[in-house]
Design goal:
The chain has 889 residues and is α+β, with helices and mostly antiparallel strands. Helices cover 47% and strands 17% of the residues.
Length: 889
Amino acid sequence: MNSLRRGFANLQTLMDSRASRSEQNNNLETPAADRGAPTGPNSSQQLLHVECQVAVAVTTKVKIHVSTVDPYDVRKLCSTQIVKRSEDGEYRASVCCSIDSKLQRHSRMEVRLYREDDLRSHSSRSCLGFTSFSIRDLLRSKEPCCSLKLRTMDGVNEVGDVTVSRLQLEEETEDKCPENKSAVLCDALHGSVQDKENSPMMRAALCSQVCKLYRFQTEDHRWLLVREQMSETPLSFSLPKQLLSALIREHTDRVAEVKALGDLSPHWDGLRHDAVTHSLQLIGCYQQTQAELHCLSTASCFKASSSKSDRHLQFIPTNLHSQRMEVTGPGSSGVWYEVITFGAPADHHQAFKHGGLKRLLIKHTDHTHSSAPFSRDESCRAKRLLAAAAQLQPLVFGLAEQLLSVSMEADPNRLQDVLDDLREQTSLFIQALNDDLVKVALQDMNSRAGSGSSHLHGNGLLCEVSPGDQEGAPQDDTQNREEEWDRTWVNVGKSLDCITAMVERLQERQRHLQEQPSPEQQESSGETKSQHTASPSSFSSSSSWQEQLLPLVVTLRDCVREAVTTARAAMTFVVLQGAVAATVARGPTQIVQRRHAVFSQGLSAIVCGFMLKLFGGLEDPEFLQQLLSVGILAQFEGLLSTYGEELGMLEDMEVGVADLSSLAFAITEAQSERPDDLQPTLTGAWGDFVVEVPLPSESFRSLPEELKAGRLIRVEPVLFNIGINQHQSLAERFGDSSLQERVNQQSCERLRVYCNKLREKLPNMAGIQSLLDLLSSLDRSIEAKKRKNVEVLWLAASVCRKVNGVRLTSCKSAKDRTAMSVTLEQCMILREQHTLSQQQFSSALDNMRRDGCRTENVQKNIGTRKFAFSSVQLLTFPKLYRPPDGSYG
């Protein structure tokens, strides 16, 4: 008996409250369960493990179906894999169901046995027999198992026996059979599911779970309990809504900034008009999209693949789910593995007639020949300089006027006070405006003034731009203005020094005058007037003081005015160039919208993956130190072909993944553990977005001080793509796969840089040395340029898991090819990390594809549990990516 059990991997599936299939050629109806009552962390449940041992006099393959039977409801819970007869003539299978609000203890459970004469045809399925039992009786029974009779459908004839057991799992030894296991392992699983998975943090990231449970045998004949969980996420809609709001704010502020520049030359005014028009178009479009999203149900967490081309869902990721697997072995707690699955980030609404983002951006760049724009920091510096000039120039002018007024009073002390204020404000003025950015801007203006040109602006104005007034420069040579810029600050300083020297001279003369004896004293001492070099009244004349200061003050004002004029022109150029670079220079509004939409889809996916990684690593100091030192790796796996529309999707995805490199995370302390307070928040602007992830106070206090202080966690995204379908066969034989080769090669280089930095920062990190071998293998696999070389994907995923990265997998809609990829990855992890026996590998792979969570994903997308493959298509697929017979059509 034990040897037979070791040779057979029992499939255990957990009740899915999403939907159920109608059985053909039997009279049992199985209506879909209530969608609003998902299993998993959002519902209170108990796990009931039941093992059925069936003895019937048949020699064919059979399938066991388990249903609950209530007075007004018959629901199919699960069905096992197709079971072969063992040597002792019995059929064995296990099921796992949850006792929740839909499955009460007073319910009955029905077991039906079907013959599978032809696995490809459901029409030949016939019911061999059935039996039923009370769940309450099973739970109350002191015996570990009970025996029931299997009867024909009319209830008259007995055709076999069914032994029902409650599985009590513990570490199995050679002399123990599954029926005698203790509840240690089951309790560990139950605690993991009910406590950690039901935490407020997890509810903020995941919702609407679908779960399946399996029991597989290892090479040393021990048992693995595998929990497969697929979940939606509220981030599918919440983050795109935040992104739309941020983009609307950004473009609204930009319109206000360029409008505040005041009167401009015709050319610059035309540029301003173009930037404003571009921004207003985006604002109007995004406001409309935002309003349509707000009209949707607040509980919306899912965009079906059939809706991927809807305009108002352009920013929403397609079919975004977390695919998680928990593996619990004898005597060990559960280990989680996660993959985020979603449709390749692409703009299906605009479609791909003219290619994807990469091609469109190259065409636009070649057409415009635009130079590199000023950075966001430089644009911000320019705005600060303009604000400083507007504030400090009036202060300097006002103090200069006050100095002249005080000079009329001939009061040295009062004059000194005003002079000190003037020196202080002028010094602040020099510090604020004497910026190298002004010189850089003047050089750029000069380089653009080399030749005449004309430009038709959006307002219909055709500007003929001569070398003297290119970019709105005045008629004098811009090169001269650049050279005069350095002299301007020398003149400002010298003018102020001259005023200071004159005031000191006047003060000195006034003191000298006060030290001279009075006329009476001079006459009594016999001194003559010839000894007096100047008239005392000449020094005490207030008009003389003002007359001597006036030309110096005028010179200072002229120098300050010249500096402000030059700086304002240069900084206006920077601000306008930044506005143009952020609007018109990025392409027509259609290209900008496409880029924002693709980024939005990737944003939701990567934030979901990061949150799951963070929640799972809060108690791992090494992982937290890794976040501080080198950031988080995000490895995108693509299964797109380089042929037809999917080539455009890959071009979209390449740019979208690259744009995510500008993203950063910050960890904050949540105000409470309410769901709204634990939702991530998007801050910043395009090219500099930060996602703030709140944690409950207890978890936040355990973080390193740098993370608690707001230290940013950078993202390093990489993309590896291998097309696997029939279209990729056409591309490799008759088309071009150079895009795929380039993307993989560049990502491999970035991945190596990330791993090298990690080795430098954390040389003692577990498994860090084995990265070298994996990276070398990845290099060789990419350089080999084999057709449909899926080994590239396997190696990249292995590296990602080694460095605690976020795994993301995509195909066109994350429904079919993605299902083949994630189920293969799960089974490879079981084999490599948990010693799943080689004999069980294929069986486990077929089980997950036939009855696992991904079949439910297909159901919720297109209303059927069959993958959208044909037999002819599958002939072109790599063998490990082909589903079992009967699971596609």
